[in-house]
Each structure stands twice: as C-alpha cells, then as structure tokens.
Design a protein that fits this description.
twelve-stranded mixed beta sheet, Asn/Gln-tRNA_amidoTrfase_suB/E, globular, alpha+beta, nucleotide-binding, protein biosynthesis
C-alpha cells in the first residue's frame, strides 16, 4: 500500500527590478573583492507576544559573530542597519500583485510590512522584512487544482561567503541582501513526488512570464514541506534544481517511513524515555594507545573521549533511513550543529576507523552496556563533546516518537541533513518604520489589463514563430527555458534551431557527463550564441566551448577559445586544407569518385571542427571534389 504523502511548496523568485526593496541600490551581484567590511553580533529578543522563537534560540546559542562585506555601489546604510528602510519598492509590488491576479488570489486591501526574526547572520538587522500581498488562489496541474496559501513580497538575505574558524565567525556579503523576492506558498495539496515538480514548474513559468525576474542559478529557490501519515511536517530548504524535487520528496518519504519503523521497533523492545538516561562517561584512558587517527588527533590536542549508553538501540543506529544515511547519521548531524564537533561514532559501525574490538568491549564495560544496547562516542574538547553528546541524546529521545518536526537542508544527491528546529509562530511582528500601502480596485484593474500571456499561449506562439517541433518546444517549456530561448534568439541573432538544440540536447548531454553545467549562467550562454551568430564560433564547437566554460567559470571566453584551439578559419584556408586532404587520398577519390564525399567529409571535419560551419565545409568539399575528378 502506497503511503499517504502530503507536500507543499514555498517558491522564492528573485526579481530583476532596478532597485532593492527598501533602498535605491541596484540589484546586481559582484564577484570582486569587497570595498569594506564590518563585524556584528546578533542578540536574542522576545517577540511581540513575549515568546522566544526556537529557531532563533538555536542560532543564538551557537555564539557566533558575523563579518559583513559590502560594495560602495550596491550596499548602503539600509543594508548595514545604520539607516531606516525607505518606502517599499513600487516596481516590485506591481510584479507581486500581477502574479496574485494571474493565480486568482485575493489581494489585501493594505500592504503591511512585517519583521520575521532571523539571527543566523544572513540579515544584519536580525530580522527579514516581508509583506503579505495576497491569499488564496490556485494553479492547475494535469487537471487538478493546487491551492495557493500566501503570496508575499520580501527582501532577500545576504549570501554566505565563508567561515573564519579561528574567530568563530561567519562571513556574509551584502550585495544580495535587500533584492526583492516573491514568495509563493502552496497548500499541502500535492500527493506525489512528480506532482511536486509539476506544480513547481507551473509556478516557475508564471513567475518568469512576468519578465522582470532574475534567472541565474539560485535566483529561484524551492523549499518543500513534506509529511507522511503518522509522520511530521518537515521543511526542506534550498532545492535549486527543478528535476531534483521529485527525488527529494521521494527520499524524505523514505526517511520518515524508516523513522516510523524504528519507533515501532523501539516500542516492541519496550524502550521508554525513562530507559534513556543522560549519563556520559569519560573513556579517554581506553584510547590512550589507540590506532584511530581521529581519536588520536583529538586527544593529542587536549580533547577527551565521552561515551553514552543508549538502552535498546542495538542495530538501529546503523539502520538506513536514506541512501548512505542512517539513524546514527541523524544523531551525528545534531551533534555537529549543537556541539560543533566533527561527528560521532556509534556501536553499530564499530570496530572500524582504527578503533579495535578490544576498545569497543572496554567502552561497553565502562558504560554497563547490556545485550540489545548501543552506545555513541565523541572525541573533542570537553565542553564541545558534552554539548554534542547531549544533542545526540535528545535526537535519540525523538526516535521514540518517530519523526521530529524540523528544518532540513537538501543535499545535491536528493538526501537531506538537519539544519535547525522548525520556526514557531513567535517570529513575526510589525515593521514600524514603513507606512502601509493601500491597494485600490482601480489600481488592480489597471494591472489586470497588463498581465502577460499565459505560458501555454507563449508555447504555441514560440512553436509557430520559430518553426520548432512540438517535442522540442515542450522540452523548452518543461525545462523552464522557453522564455530564455526567445530572448537568446532575439538578442543574439543566433539560429532558433541552434539555440534550441543547445538548451535541450547539448546541456543535458554535458550534465550526463558530470560537467557542472550549473556554472553556465544565461549571460555566458548569450555570449556563446552571439559569437556563433557572428561566425566567430562554428555551431559544432558549442559542446566543447560550453564544457570548458563550465569547468572554468571565471575564465574569459576569448581565453577559452584560444586555449582549446578554436580559432575561426576563412574559406580560402579551408579550401587549401581540403585540397591537401584530397591529394592525400587521391587514389581513393578516383576509385570511389562521388562516393568519396562521406569519408573525406569526416576527415576534414576532424581537422576543422568548431572553427567553421559544417555546411560551409560540405559546400567547399563538393566543389573541390568535382574539380579534382573532372581534371583527372
């Protein structure tokens, strides 16, 4: 029997407005060194209702400081929290209102900006500004209506650029902070992994139809809320790729079902909360002469070895919950985040990693481990090891209940890892520095007349205007590349067939070869298409050029072309090369005559591939073959 799955989406689309949401800074990102830095620490405060948000408490207890980087051109005193926010960006508001009208949502009468507590360092203020724009509405996918719960307009956060280990600090760059985002949250109406992708595709296409949205990697981010019957609502953050959504949902369902099985097994074994007692034991002396490199390194640095017995957990810590991840991994994740330790060992995986059977037996004896029990073990500084052990212990207690509600981060392979506790309702309160904006019926009617054509109409028009087959056009549609395709053809003058083939075939093939095509921004692709249209690159060279650009994203295109030997050759030089090839194969040509074209075409293309168009090669080769044969 298939498990009952409930899934909702939160989609965040970065807008390509002229200015940021609450100031006049432009909305572009930079890669060069910042002009200035400053440091902050963020304090924990109660909300308007006198409560502390658990996610905020989690971040505060890490005890970190934050080093912020900025540029003079696109970071101002608003981002630095040295000046009150300006009025809400009307261009961004208009885009959010248009989207609300497109999905039939009910727009609010007044837009009020709220503060959402965020103290992980990604916002200098300690909160993110967000405004509710509309509620309700729906999108239709395969004949089914999926509800929209809320549509919000919010400021993007700073982007993390590194960690200063010795200073216990995180480094953030402020160029992204304040760029407007539309956040769309669906109802939990999605019931399968593939349906989640289809809903995300539909919402993504509607957002892109607005025109003024950013399209580089990370410009649209999908968060998932997933639960199975008997499980819990788990939020999964940061799914950037559309095609990864079904796998993330599928593997989260697998994880929750596995955790429910572990819960039931613990019940069958009669394990209760009273059986799990937090009594860490210092077992450092057992490992004084250990061969484990991890243990030896920690102990030589002044660390200790702390161990904890988990009654009734034998065989369960090693049980797989996702590919390559086990219940022990979940305990380790908690220890890493709360204790900032490197990880932990558990008895289901030992002896291993240099830890001997004798050492394992000694730890069991020190802890009083009995048949059916397990233990966990951490090597680190005493305080960190104790905090990590406490966090792992609390995660073990949650195993008795099944699936803990939490926020998790998506890994590139579709698995997930613990990120932080789920936020509570105590994280929102009014923004007093920004006046509300009234939304009139007349204004909404004006915007209704300016709505873009639906994506399906764009699909039909693109097929008709650019002579694309339905299969290719639908692939562009399904990959969210339809709008970029049309832009690329118009901006560069490249052949529609060349652009479409590159987007639906070449990039897919390169990804299958494990080439990091995510490094290819749309600006990079436009640059390549422009050079193809100008004749500087032959269309046959596109795969090689894109491969090198993906592997070397910071390198200039001209340098890449020079390095891989793709330099444009003219027809005269081509003709000379063809004559040489014919001369080298003259006996074959005279014997086969017209049939020699196929073989020689392959020889010539191997010599000139990427430096001149294949159609030109074919034309000149035919001319030279005819001339040679007629004169022989």
């Amino acid at each position: 029997m298939e498990p009952r799955v409930r899934c909702g989406l939160e989609i965040h689309q970065m807008l390509d407005t002229e200015k940021k949401l609450f100031c006049s800074c432009p909305t572009y990102l930079r890669k060069d060194d910042p002009h200035f830095t400053f440091r902050r620490r963020l304090r924990l405060a109660k909300s308007e209702v006198g409560e502390i948000d658990p996610a905020a408490l989690f971040e505060y207890e890490k005890g970190l400081s934050y080093l912020y980087e900025g540029y003079r051109e696109n970071v101002c005193l608003v981002e630095m929290d040295e000046e009150p926010p300006h009025e809400l960006n009307r261009e961004a508001l208009e885009l959010a209102l248009k989207f609300a009208l497109m999905v039939g949502a009910s727009v609010v009468d007044e837009v009020h900006v709220m503060r959402k507590i965020v103290i992980d360092g990604s916002n200098v203020t300690g909160f993110q500004r967000t405004a509710l724009i509309a509620i309700g509405g729906s999108v239709e996918v395969n004949g089914k209506r999926v509800g929209i719960q809320t549509i919000c307009l919010e400021e993007d956060a700073a982007r993390k650029t590194g960690e200063v280990i010795e200073e216990n600090a995180l480094r953030y760059r402020l160029d992204r902070m304040g760029i407007p985002l539309i956040e769309v949250a669906t109802a939990p109406d999605i019931t399968s992994p593939e349906e989640a992708r289809e809903v995300a595709l539909r919402i993504g296409l509607l957002l892109r139809s607005l025109g003024k949205v950013k399209r580089e990697l990370g410009a649209i981010r999908q968060d998932l809320n997933v639960s199975v019957e008997g499980g819990a609502k788990v939020e999964i953050k940061g799914v950037q790729y559309l095609d990864l959504i079904p796998k993330v949902v599928e593997l989260e369902v697998k994880r929750q079902l596995a955790l429910l099985e572990i819960r039931d097994e613990l019940k069958r074994r009669g394990v209760t909360r009273d059986d799990l007692v937090f009594k860490p034991v210092d077992v450092t002396e057992i490992f004084r002469n250990t061969k484990s490199k991890v243990a030896r390194k920690a102990l030589e640095a002044g660390g200790r070895a702390l161990a904890l017995r988990l009654k009734g957990f034998a065989g369960l810590l090693g049980r797989e919950v996702q590919p390559g991840r086990r219940l022990g991994t979940e305990l380790s994740d908690r220890a890493k985040y709360w204790g900032r330790v490197g990880g932990l060992f558990h008895s289901d995986e030992l002896p291993a990693y240099g830890i001997s059977q004798e050492e394992v037996e000694a730890v069991k004896q020190a802890l009083g481990v009995e048949q059916g029990d397990a233990f966990i073990l951490i090597f680190d500084e005493p305080e960190k090891a104790l905090r990590g052990l406490r966090a792992a212990y609390e995660r073990a207690l949650e195993a008795l209940e099944g699936v803990p509600p939490e926020t998790r981060a998506a890994n590139p392979d579709g698995t997930t890892r613990f990120m932080r506790p789920r936020p509570g309702s105590a994280r929102m309160y009014p923004e007093t520095d920004i006046r509300p904006i009234r939304v009139t019926r007349e204004y909404l009617e004006k915007l209704r007349q300016e709505l873009p054509e639906p994506p399906e109409k764009t699909l039909e028009r693109v097929m008709r205007e650019y002579s694309l087959s339905r299969e290719v056009a639908f692939q562009l549609f399904n990959m969210q590349r339809m709008y970029f395709f049309e832009e690329a053809v118009k901006k560069t003058g490249a052949s529609p067939q060349v652009v479409a083939t590159t987007l639906v075939n070449t990039l897919v093939s390169l990804r299958r070869e494990n080439v990091p095509v995510e490094n290819l921004s749309e600006e990079r692709l436009l640059e390549v298409f422009r050079m193809v249209a100008e004749g500087s690159i032959a269309k046959e060279a596109i795969p090689d050029v894109l491969r090198e650009l993906a592997l070397n994203p910071e390198e200039q295109l001209e340098n890449v072309l020079r390095r891989i030997g793709i330099e444009r050759i003219d027809v005269d030089r081509l003709r000379a090369m063809i004559r040489e090839v014919i001369a080298e194969n003259k006996d074959y040509v005279l014997q086969k005559r017209e049939k020699a074209f196929g073989k020689l075409m392959g020889v010539v293309m191997d010599k000139v591939r990427g430096r001149i168009d294949g159609s030109v090669v074919a034309k000149v080769l035919k001319e030279e073959l005819e001339s040679f044969i007629s004169s022989s």
